[in-house]
Each structure stands twice: as C-alpha cells, then as structure tokens.
C-alpha cells in the first residue's frame, strides 16, 4: 500500500471510530435515510461472525427482503430505515453458512446465482485469476500456445490487472480459455498444487431447492456465465437473461424477478443492456455505490461490504453512500 493510500485508510478508520464512539450513527442515519432512502448491501464471501457483526451494527435500520424493498421503492413508498442483504456468485460454503445465520435471525437474504457455475465443476474465470495472482511463481510458462513471463518483479500482478480490465468489458472467449490453459499448465508442471488453483465449489442445485423453502432465503439471477453484459450481443444477452431466470425458477419453485449485473460497474453494464434487463426482471443491481434515492429499478446502486470492514467502517460506508 502506498503512503497516500495508507493515509486515506487511516483517516477513514478514524472517522469511522469517531462516529461509533460519539453515538452519532443513529441520528445521522435517520437524516440520510429520510433524504436518500434505504440501501442494498453487496456481499461476496465472508465469515458468518463478521457478517453478524456488520449487520447488527446497522441497527436501528433493519433488513427487509429485496423483493419487498424494491416494491416499496417502485411505488414511491418510504424505504427509510430499511436495507436488503445480497450476496453475489453462489459460492457453496458462503451460501450455506449465511443462509443458516439468516434463518436463525430472521434476516432476509438474497443470493444471486450465475447458473453455469452450479451446472458444472471448475469455477469461473475471475476465480482462476485470483488464484493465479496469489500463487503463480516467478517463472516463464507456455500455455495454450502463449508464453507468460512472470519472472520480472510485479509481473503476475500486472498480468492480473490487465486481464481484469479485459474481463470487465469483453466476451468470455477472450479470457476464459486463456486463464484455464494457464491454470492447467501451472498444475501440470508441478509449479502450483492443484488445490491452490481450484475454484471454491458452488452451491448445488439440490441445496438451492432445499434452502429456497426457507422464507428468508431467496435466489435470483447473476446471469449464466458471469460475463459482463456490455460484452454480449443481443442474442447472447437474451440467452443469459432468459435461461438463468428459467433455471433458477425451476429449481426454487418461485419466480426469479431480480438480476445482478456481473462485475457491476458502468463499463461492464454499458448503455444498451439495462433496457433489455428491464423487460425480464423487476430490478437489477449494480456495484455502483449509493442508496436507493430516485434510482431506476434497472440500475439500483448498492453499498459494497467486505470481510475486512469492521462495524464502524460499515456504518461510515452506509452514511456516505
């Protein structure tokens, strides 16, 4: 971390502690809620204990089912003091542990599923890339007819940054096979143990069917292949939207009415997809940070929350969203 980034982090942590210590969160949140409405939390993976700490820190605001929060927002009813909890990607261990906490505490939670991840083992390209960045050694290696030179200092990190940019805006075919070949080559040459590069297993469809019987658990769409919608042509986008919705509904016995854009940034969403998404789904969430406010249903912002965020920092994120 650079000195400037470290200073920003320290100042943010100090501000978060001041809000908590002074008891200012409750009054400030009431003001923010009246002015800008409720919010949606965006999670990926974290331990259950940290999740409980973060959600409890947001009292007196209370969690509400995403579908109900969206309904209130759509009809112009107040969402002050309310928030929805959402988890992206459908990682098996995360879904199981968080669903158990949600059921025990009566906290409604929504899990967005990329259906191809559940259909076949192996994981998704962004999971492979994270593992490569973490474990690839400083060597030159040929994979899929291409040589990757990771010997220079920082080469693996630079590769990960460049590939991430491609992933956020381009079709799966331009990065998926390349990453898969690299993972396979690292394992085949004995450079990295297979378990280090293995993607976390997805939740299974039988588990989805069982968990969907819980009143507080909902499963919605994260597409089929977790490809940035801006990278898809009309036919491919239609397939991602329709097939994921149909499959999830078939396994849960409930209508699938909400969508989460893969990657979720403006460049990954593009200008065309939101109108198409609105034809098939009641709402769609992004990774743009913010509250519901007056935002359109097909481009709802969220408040991203991560495992390293303590209770005070989560409060600060919510207040400044």
CATH class of the largest domain: Alpha Beta
> What spatial form do the alpha-carbon principal axes imply?
globular
Number of strands: 10
Distance N terminus to C terminus? 24 Å
Give the arrangement of secondary structure elements.
Elements: H1 3-21, H2 25-36, E1 39-43, H3 48-56, E2 62-63, H4 66-75, E3 82-88, H5 92-105, E4 109-113, H6 115-119, H7 125-135, E5 140-143, E6 146-149, H8 155-169, H9 176-188, H10 194-197, H11 205-211, E7 217-221, H12 234-252, E8 258-260, H13 266-269, H14 273-280, E9 283-289, E10 300-304, H15 311-320
Parallel strand pairs: 1-3, 1-10, 2-3, 3-4, 4-7, 8-9, 9-10
Antiparallel strand pairs: 5-6
Explain what you see.
With 321 residues, this protein is an alpha/beta fold. The protein folds into two domains: 3-119 and 202-320, TIM Barrel (Alpha-Beta Barrel), CATH 3.20.20.370; 125-197, no CATH class. The protein contains 15 helices and ten strands. Strands 1, 2, 3, 4, 7, 8, 9 and 10 form an eight-stranded parallel β-sheet that branches. It has a two-stranded antiparallel sheet with strand order 5-6. Strand 3 (82-88), helix 5 and strand 4 (109-113) form a beta-alpha-beta unit. Helix 7 (125-135) crosses helix 9 (176-188). The protein is globular and about 60 Å long. The two termini are 24 Å apart. The model has no long low-confidence stretch (mean pLDDT 94).
List keywords for this structure.
single chain; 321 residues; alpha/beta; TIM Barrel; 2 domains; eight-stranded parallel beta sheet; two-stranded antiparallel sheet; 15 helices; globular
């Amino acid at each position: 971390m650079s000195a400037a980034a470290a200073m920003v982090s320290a100042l943010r942590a100090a501000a978060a502690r001041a809000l908590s210590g002074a008891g200012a969160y409750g009054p400030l949140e009431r003001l923010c809620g009246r002015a800008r409405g409720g919010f949606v939390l965006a999670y990926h993976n974290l331990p259950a204990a940290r999740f409980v700490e973060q959600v409890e820190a947001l009292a007196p605001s209370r969690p509400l089912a995403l579908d109900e929060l969206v309904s209130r927002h759509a009809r112009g009813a107040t969402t002050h003091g309310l928030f929805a909890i959402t988890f992206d990607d459908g990682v098996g261990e995360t879904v199981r542990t968080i669903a158990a906490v949600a059921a025990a505490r009566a906290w409604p939670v929504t899990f967005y599923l990329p259906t191809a991840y559940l259909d076949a083992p192996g994981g998704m390209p962004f999971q492979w890339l994270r593992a490569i960045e973490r474990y690839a050694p400083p060597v030159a290696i040929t994979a899929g007819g291409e040589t990757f030179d990771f010997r220079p200092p920082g080469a693996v990190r630079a590769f990960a940054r460049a590939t991430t940019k491609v992933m956020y805006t381009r079709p799966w075919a331009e990065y998926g096979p390349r990453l898969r070949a690299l993972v396979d080559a690292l394992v085949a040459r004995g450079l990295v143990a297979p378990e280090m590069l293995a993607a976390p297993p997805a939740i299974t469809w039988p588990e989805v069917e069982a968990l969907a019987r819980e009143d507080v658990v909902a499963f919605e769409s994260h597409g089929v292949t977790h490809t940035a919608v801006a990278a898809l042509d009309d036919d491919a986008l239609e397939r991602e939207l329709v097939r994921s919705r149909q499959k999830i509904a078939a396994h849960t016995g409930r209508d699938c009415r909400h969508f989460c854009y893969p990657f979720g940034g403006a460049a990954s969403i593009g200008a065309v997809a939101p109108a198409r998404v609105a034809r098939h789904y009641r709402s769609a969430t992004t990774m743009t940070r913010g509250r519901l406010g007056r935002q359109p249903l097909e481009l709802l912002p969220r408040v991203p929350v991560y495992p390293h965020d303590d209770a005070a920092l989560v409060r600060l994120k919510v207040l400044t969203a």
